[in-house]
Amino acid sequence: MSGRSLLDEFDTDGLPAHGLPGEAYVSSAFMQIEQQFLFNNCWVFVGYAHQLARSGDVRPIQVAGLPLFLLRDQQNEVVAFHNVCRHRNLKLIDEADNCGKLIRCPYHSWSYDLCGALKNAPYFGGTKQGLPEGFRLEDNGLMPVNCEVWHDWIFVSLSSQPGSFEDFLAPIKRQLGANDVSDYVPRATLDLGEVPCNWKLLMENFIEPYHVQFVHRTTTEQPLKDHYTVVDEHCLGSAVELSAEQVANARAGTLGVTSHYLTLFPNFVMGTYQPDQLGVHLNEPIAADVTRQHRVIYTHRDAHYSDEQIQGLSDLWHSVHLEDHAMCIRLQEGRHSPLAAQGGLLSPHWENSVRKFQELVADAIRPGLTRRGSI
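Now predict its structure.
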């Protein structure tokens, strides 16, 4: 299918609008274009700072199909590097660990300090300390990656000219208003494993409220009529405002509070739950049909939750995610149908935030479709 015709239905004017075609969710070639033209050119959410607690803590990640790693350096800052030795390009960090004061390549023992500087290349010039003529340690350090931290959340950009990080955060900060995220501390982590669906389906599912009263009827008390969608530049999502009476009458063990479901394109996801909870989850694209997902539960620093209550929150959110996963897996399966070539239809009222998300995807990958001609 040509790049032009792939988005023909999507680009057709009129309501209800068509969504992205099925190929955008099942094609490995489409995902390669996303890696090169989308994830390679924006701020991407990659991890949690509290998981790098000590100097020397390292964690491998993958962005745009490239091996990178996160590191807590000697200045207590979180930084990122390309995860390859400058000698033979071996992947340096294979699992989360603490490397001490040096990152050592296990193949030939080239060693780098926590600033990424090459400190030792033993026997490279023949003798233990000898170096070949014209070779300088200072010219062969690790390659850094643009890295920024907002509260507990780590973002990287592979772009040679990344956009302003503050501009990137601006729309979600507007939506948060007076809710200061720096007041929240991590209390529990849910490793939700690999979900057999495309990353975009998990994002779209979070962004729209249309499904909540049908999919989550046993785990939430948030009527659809009380929701509204959020479209603020690249901050997309929805929110629900509940009265004090609705909150008081919510069934025990369900989510029945005023909530804001906010994202930053492409893959940052935050939920706020009044009066004192946050949830942030990370969707990591692994393949066209596989996404790895984690969620961290935060509570306000002044809130008092027992271990039993935190476990209850963890159980609730695990159940909610499994309900979403069941739908997203079936959405993925449906994308193989020839009917999915038209992209389905989007509610102009409840799924305008999904449409905006898909427009951001489409605009990011158009140069790749034009260049490649077909996928």
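Residues 185 and 269 are 17 Å apart (CA to CA).
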